[in-house]
Every structure is written in structure tokens, then in C-alpha cells.
Amino acid sequence: MNQCYLPENVYFCVTEGSSIFLDLSRNQYFGIQNFDITTLLQEHSSRSIPSPLASDACQVLLHKGLLRYAVGKPLRPILITHAAQAISDLDHEDDAPHGRSQTRLHHVKNFFLSYVLTTVTLRTCGLSSIVARAKRVRARLSSGSRHDGPNVHDIVRSFLTLRPLFYTARNHCLLDSLTLLRYLEKYRLSATWVLGVKTRPFAAHSWVQGNGVVFNDTPEYIREFTPILSV
């Protein structure tokens, strides 16, 4: 069997024994139950004859454009550690050096702008362009990082305080995560945006984390999902 690669806009993970693919160009998930696609890597490395199941699965994925023989990304899942703490867990740690932040007018203005821009983006742009922008912003903020800016935990707390005035995060995890990313961007702060999936039944989820802290969710809940993409 020829070496298989991932197209640039395709990501995958293996969860509960099933292989899940995310095609950003189509805004679509695709799964193969009870098959670990990483077995293809083992067969390539050992140069063994692929099993009939592996051959059939590979042909289906090639036909759907989720794999290719031409050069592309290596067929490897992303490596990211779930955040182990919630922002609320740090209240007693952050209060002493930083003090509890108060919600001010600039917080309200930046939240409103972030929410409106995110809402428009989700209605007019596909996931591929949204991810591309998030990567550009992350690179720009990382290259121009500063140490004299606001404390990221205080900014996240102000976000969580204002959120109920605009929307509920329940069943709006993508809106919530992208709004939070834009809000942090207003203060020249970056974080990691994660998309995760689970099966039985299938569900997808989105959250934002940084330095071992999940900003808009709980560690217990995000651990139910296997990361498929992170920016």
C-alpha cells in the first residue's frame, strides 16, 4: 500500500476505537466505527501486507478526499493535554497578587464587538477560513508577546461575568470559544482553541484553554472529548 497523507484542511483523531475525520473545507465530520486509522502507520512502518479492513477503509477515505497519496500532512493525531484546572479553581491563587478585577466600560465594549464579529463570522464564513484566521492571530500574538499587559485570568473572569448578558454558553460552544478568542485578542492575549469529539453518541465540542487552565468550561467535561484540532 502506498503511503497515505492528510490533505491540509483535514484533521483526525481516534476515540473509543473509531476514527473521526474533520474536513474544514466542507464543514463536515466523517467517522469509521471500530477502526483505528493509525494501524495504517504500523503497516507502513513494518511493510506488512495491509488487512482487508485497512485497505477498504483507506479506499473509502481516499474517495472522500480525506486521505491522499500525494504529499500532505503526516497521518498523525494532534498531541495536546487537557487542561486540569478551571478558571474558578484559581480564584484563591490569583486574588492575593492581582486582586479581583472589576468589570469596566472597556470590557463591555470589547465583549460586544467580539460577540458581534463572531456572530457575523459564523454566518458568513466556513470553518476553514475561521481556523486560518485563528492561526494567523495566534502567530501574531505569540511573536509580539508582552509581559506588561493585563492578567489573562482577570480578562477571562470579566468575559465570564459579561457572557450571561449576551447569550448562554449551553449548546453554543463554538460561538462562545470564538468570542472568547476575539475578546482576548483585544487585550493582545492568546490562548489555545480546541475542537474535540466523542462517539456513542457522536458529539463535538469546543473550548479555550491556556497553561493548564480551561477558560470557558470544566476539566471534567472536556475530558469526555478527544481533541481533533487545536489552534
Count all strands and give the number: 8
Show unreliable segments.
Answer: none
β-sheet strand percentage:
15-25%
What form results from the Cα inertia axes? elongated
Terminus-to-terminus distance: 32 Å
The overall average pLDDT, rounded, is 88
Give the radius of gyration. Answer: 20 Å
Count of discrete alpha- or pi-helical segments spanning 4 or more residues? 8
The quaternary structure here is: single chain
Strand order of the largest sheet: 4-7-6-5-8
The residue fraction in helices comes out at 40-55%
Derived structural class: alpha+beta
Order of helices and strands: EEEHHEHHHHHEEEHE
State the major sheet: 5 strands, mixed
In terms of topology, how is this protein built?
Elements: E1 10-15, E2 18-23, E3 28-32, H1 39-46, H2 52-63, E4 85-86, H3 91-98, H4 105-124, H5 127-143, H6 152-166, H7 173-186, E5 192-198, E6 203-210, E7 213-214, H8 219-222, E8 226-230
Parallel strand pairs: 4-7
Antiparallel strand pairs: 1-2, 2-3, 5-6, 5-8, 6-7
Characterization of this structure:
With 231 residues, this protein is an alpha+beta fold. The protein contains eight helices and eight strands; from the N terminus they run βββααβαααααβββαβ. It has helices spanning 39-46, 52-63, 91-98, 105-124, 127-143, 152-166, 173-186, 219-222; strands at residues 10-15, 18-23, 28-32, 85-86, 192-198, 203-210, 213-214, 226-230. The strands form two sheets. Strands 4-7-6-5-8 form a five-stranded mixed sheet, with helices on one face. The chain is elongated and about 60 Å long.
